[in-house]
Design goal:
Layout lengths: L28 H15 L1 E3 H11 L4 H13 L3 E4 L3 E4 H6 L2 H15 L15 E8 L2 E9 L1 H4 L3
Antiparallel strand pairs: 1-3, 2-3, 4-5
Amino acid sequence: MALKRSADDSFDLLDDLDIEIELRTRDENPQIASYIVELLQEHKVLHWRELMQLVRRRYTVSVERLQTIVRDLVYSNRIVELPCRFFTLIEIWGNADLASLIGVIEKKVQKLGLSRCSPPLASAKHPIKIRISRSNKENKLTILHVSDQYQELI
């Protein structure tokens, strides 16, 4: 039940005041994108869950909007989407030892308790194909394919 206002209410005094309201547009997308790049420089590889948690601690952003920002970063070749929604920087991917990168991904699969691969956010191109499966209460990462160009690095 709402309280009714009477003519004697002190709130009527506020009607005569000039109140200035500042409306801000939500134009933080470039800031969020650069923050994502900073996070990837620091962590080297991040899964979508980790990325979402870290960004949402700092910015108020919906999942859909964050997906759009990440897609834009992938399509503009600023970041690389690896299988199972893992992300890294294009520079790290180009200079990385693939075996160590796969080792980091294996640790993250265990840490996050991932039991399957999620579909990609963007139509990213990547030379490795992986599968995550659960067996004997342990999540396992399996490398299904590595392109011939990167085969010698493993």
